Amino acid sequence: MSITAPIRTWRSWHRPLFAFALLMAVLAVVSAIGVLTDDRWLAGAPVWLKPLKFGLSFFVYAVSMAWVVAQMRLRSRWITTVGTVLAVSSLLELALITLQAARGVESHFSSRDMVFDRVVASGMAIMVMVLWSASLAIGIVAVRHRFGDAATTAAVRWGLGVSVLGAALGFLMLLPTADQRAGLDALVGAHSVGGAYDAAGMPLTGWALDGGDLRIPHFVGIHALQALPLLAAALSVPRLGLDEARRAALVRTGALGYLAIVAITLVQALRGQPLLAPDAVTVGATVAAVVAVGVGVAAIARTPASPISGRAGRRRP
């Protein structure tokens, strides 16, 4: 079974997650209109930029999880319930994000001065923990499940694992900064490290230009669930002539390289360094990761075709 085969049977995907994905598409459209028509700004960005980004991000994430859960539910029926918990908790989080955007105030970071905002932030923290736990449960079950051929299976398993790790990095943003612990800031939690809270960021993403930004490794890690299966699909092109064993090995190598990117961007953010202004340490680590992946790819390319897989594209019985 190839990674593209289930696309023809999308009606069998996990319905609550797929419905949530459609709602996120609607949210993205509404938020985009808000960005264009609402002149209010918050933390250096339009107030509707955050729900727009979350809507787009959760759309692709929910679509991916809807497919993953559908593949596993025949052997692990309880995973359907876990998928529903994931959809509901994600929906509640996005509802709170949208509510706070409409009010023109922060959502994830609570305020010491507003009781309602503290309640909202606490509720979001609970929802984040629930949806992360559901994602972790799905990832654990996926370790023992096959998703078609070896390359697709490796892509989904590694994608889920790195995605769960990337989601966990979001908890770092809920920790109070030094100024907040000293009572100099009404908010609790921040995504920026060493930069101004309300400084303008990069176009579209809003990532900090004057310091580190924890949203970067968080974002990169979460979307491993899309990047790695796409890599597996690209490697399955018949013109490449890759057998199943080599495609799986290349996916695993790509997954390690992707994990290195998450680690590099995390350290860069914690050091208070903007993404677009890397120092020698960050550049050196990036070059080392690229070289390591290149060496791995070259070694795999020289490996003879697997006698088990046979010619390129043939699946194991």
Number of strands: 6
Rg of Cα set? 21 Å
Whole-number mean pLDDT: 86
Could you give the order of strands across the largest sheet? Answer: 1-2
How many strands, what sense, and barrel or not for the largest sheet?
2 strands, antiparallel
- Percentage of residues in DSSP E strands: under 5%
Outline type: globular
Q: What is the number of independent domains? A: 2
Provide the structure class.
mainly alpha
| N- to C-terminal distance | 11 Å
Poorly predicted regions? 1-8, 308-317
* Number of helices in the DSSP assignment: 10
**Portion of residues within helices:** 55-70%
Order of H and E elements: HEEHHEHHHEEEHHHH
Brief summary:
By secondary structure, this protein is mostly helical. It is built from 10 helices and 6 strands.
Description:
- This protein is mainly alpha-helical.
- The protein folds into two domains: 1-145, no CATH class; 149-317, no CATH class.
- 61% of the residues lie in helices and 4% in strands.
- The protein has ten helices and six strands.
- It has helices at residues 15-37, 49-72, 78-103, 115-142, 150-168, 178-181, 215-222, 224-235, 244-270, 280-301, and strands spanning 41-42, 45-46, 110-111, 187-188, 192-193, 212-213.
- Strands 1-2 form a two-stranded antiparallel sheet.
- Strand 1 (41-42) and strand 2 (45-46) form a beta hairpin.
- The radius of gyration is 21 Å and the shape is globular.
- The protein starts with 14 loop residues before the first helix and ends in a 16-residue tail after the last helix.
- Residues 1-8 and 308-317 have low confidence and may be disordered.
